[in-house]
Amino acid sequence: MAGGAVKYRHLSRKSSHRKALLRNLVTSLFEHESISTTWPKAKEAQRLAEKMVTLAKRNTEASKRRAHSIFFVRVSIELLLHPVQVL
């Protein structure tokens, strides 16, 4: 059988472009609380956004630094690291 399990969607981009794209999508998501994009990009951004929420739940200095490394805009970190409300 050809192919196999794929760890992530490549989105027809090089790794540096794909990483920048996903960082931009997640930054916009937490700033504006909604984004408009294609289904595959949204599913990949969802994976990264869920990791960011997990970081926010830890609320340690190390988690803040990791969040700084992913977000492009510093304001987003304050939005993310406030107590998370589960509906």
Describe this structure in words.
This protein has 87 residues and is mostly helical. The protein has a single domain, classed as 50s Ribosomal Protein L17, Chain: A (Alpha-Beta Complex). The protein contains four helices and no strands. The protein has helices at residues 15-32, 39-58, 61-70, 75-81. α1 (15-32) packs across α2 and α2 runs antiparallel to α3. The longest helix is centred in the middle third of the chain and has 20 residues, at 39-58.
List its traits.
87 residues, mainly alpha, 50s Ribosomal Protein L17, Chain: A, 63% helix, globular
Number of helices: 4
Q: Which CATH C-level class is it?
A: Alpha Beta
Strand proportion, as a percent range, falls in under 5%
How many strands, which pairing sense, and closed or not: the largest β-sheet?
none
| CATH 4th-level superfamily | Ribosomal protein L17
Radius of gyration: 14 Å
Q: How many distinct beta strands? A: 0
Query: What percent of residues adopt helix (DSSP H or I)?
Result: 55-70%
Give the N-to-C terminal Cα separation: 43 Å
CATH-derived topology: 50s Ribosomal Protein L17, Chain: A
Low-confidence stretches: none
Let me know the average pLDDT: 83
- The 3D shape can be described as globular
Oligomer: single chain
In the CATH classification, which architecture applies? Alpha-Beta Complex
Based on helices, strands and strand pairing, what is the structural class?
mainly alpha
Number of domain modules:
1
N-to-C SSE string, H for helix and E for strand: HHHH
